[in-house]
């Protein structure tokens, strides 16, 4: 069951959990849509809402993506703007009686998300608890255990994202244009130059290894791992007691 924007207020009156996916509109190589991160984040958010009974909020399509400058169609905002927007949304949900928020981060370049989540919890626990679900961080071990992938080390428009899009929206993928490319650098170097400096086609990984079958398994695994992670963090936070006057 989805308790979301397409339902009535009665559908969400008995839940204290809100699911907020966050994506990005940005280049994903020559073979995929600029909406890739938005579509994937929204799909994972829907899956989490179905399993948890939380209030599903449609994915936010635009976030921060300065590392993709240099390619038309990559639309982002300043970190300060995104920080204020996310804080306002979360506090508005709190004012409506939602006590738990799960932010599904579908774009790896939202580097300001950690301060947002940390400060919301530091300032508002126990009345509001916020969990950041970054599937790139929490799902890797499960993907490895299930031996879903044929490649490792990709971070953008790679085997994972391409497989998910082949499953979710195959009409938005042109595999004849998919490529494999691994730059001679590491992800932290994106602090000093954008993706296109290292990956001229905008692909960082093995896009040609993708299949729709992998995408289905990746999505199911991502949802399951996200729910387990979310529940474990909420359980930990709910057990906290004041420490020298602080609930954080």
Tell me the fraction of residues in β-strands, as a range: 5-15%
What number is the mean pLDDT? 95
Strand order of the largest sheet: 1-3-2-4-5
Number of DSSP-assigned strands: 7
Helix content: 25-40%
- Outline type: globular
Distance between the termini: 33 Å
Q: SS-based structural class?
A: alpha/beta
User: What is Rg?
Assistant: 18 Å
User: What is the helix/strand order?
Assistant: EEHEHEHEHHHEHEH
Multimeric status of the protein: single chain
Specify the number of helices: 8
Largest sheet: 5 strands, parallel
Q: List low-confidence stretches.
A: none
Q: Can you offer a commentary on this structure?
A:
- The chain is of the alpha/beta class and 248 residues long.
- 40% of the residues lie in helices and 10% in strands.
- It has eight helices and seven strands.
- It has helices spanning 36-52, 79-95, 113-124, 135-138, 140-146, 159-168, 195-198, 212-238; strands at residues 3-4, 17-22, 55-56, 100-105, 129-134, 180-181, 205-206.
- The strands form two sheets. Strands 1-3-2-4-5 form a five-stranded parallel β-sheet, with helices on both faces. A two-stranded antiparallel sheet has the order 6-7.
- Helix 3 (113-124) links the parallel strand 4 and strand 5 (129-134).
- The two termini are 33 Å apart.
- The mean pLDDT is 95.
């Amino acid at each position: 069951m989805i308790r979301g924007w397409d339902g009535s207020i009665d559908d969400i009156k008995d839940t204290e959990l809100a699911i907020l996916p966050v994506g990005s509109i940005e280049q994903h190589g020559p073979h995929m849509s600029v909406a890739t991160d938005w579509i994937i984040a929204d799909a994972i958010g829907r899956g989490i809402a179905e399993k948890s009974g939380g209030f599903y909020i449609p994915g936010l399509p635009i976030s921060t993506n300065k590392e993709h400058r240099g390619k038309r169609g990559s639309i982002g905002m300043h970190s300060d703007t995104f920080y204020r927007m996310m804080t306002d949304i979360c506090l508005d949900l709190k004012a409506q009686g939602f006590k738990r928020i799960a932010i599904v981060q579908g774009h790896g370049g939202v580097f300001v998300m950690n301060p947002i989540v940390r400060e919301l919890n530091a300032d508002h626990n126990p009345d509001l608890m916020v969990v950041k679900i970054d599937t790139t961080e929490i799902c890797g071990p499960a993907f490895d255990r299930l031996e879903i992938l044929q490649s490792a080390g990709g971070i953008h428009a790679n085997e994972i994202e391409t497989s998910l899009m082949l499953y979710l929206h195959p009409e938005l993928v042109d595999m004849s244009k998919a490529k494999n490319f691994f730059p001679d650098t590491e992800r932290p170097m994106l602090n000093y130059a954008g993706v296109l400096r290292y990956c001229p086609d905008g692909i960082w990984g093995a896009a040609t290894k993708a299949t729709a079958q992998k995408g289905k398994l990746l999505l199911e695994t991502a949802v399951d791992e996200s729910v387990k992670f979310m529940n474990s963090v909420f359980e930990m936070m709910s057990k906290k007691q004041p420490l020298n006057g602080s609930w954080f």
